[in-house]
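Quick one, T. Sequence first:
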Amino acid sequence: MNSKKTILIRPADPRAPVIKKMISDLDDYQASLYPPESNHLEPVDKLVSPKYFFIAAWNGHEVLGIASFKRMPEKYVEIKRLYVPRQNRGMGLAIKLMNVLEEKAIQEGFSEARLETGIDQNEALGLYRKLGYDIIEPFGSYQKDPLSVFMSKKLL
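Structure tokens:
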């Protein structure tokens, strides 16, 4: 990928066809790794509710990656749908997307970010550790699952 591209991260509509396609690709990837009961995928119709903050990294009209969080009443956000397709990796996009999510959460007064990811997603696990996330017990409505890793980071 050309490193001279101008990348802009901004709020996005997950119903936009190009973004919906990326979400579908992520769903397919997750389904190839884990059984349905271990996949906790938020459908597009939920991602557009006011509970969510959804962003995309753009180069012109090309979407390079997506991410979102869900605002939880317990004063934390849950990171959802972080995805950078393989062909767009290596530019630090996932870190940039996470930084935007964390900054927005702090602006809104949230003190913690939590997430669930899978045990076979080594790149994601490495990213989250690098960003300061620690392993925790299941939170919210999640149950213990040998295929899941739960993580948290204090934001304030």
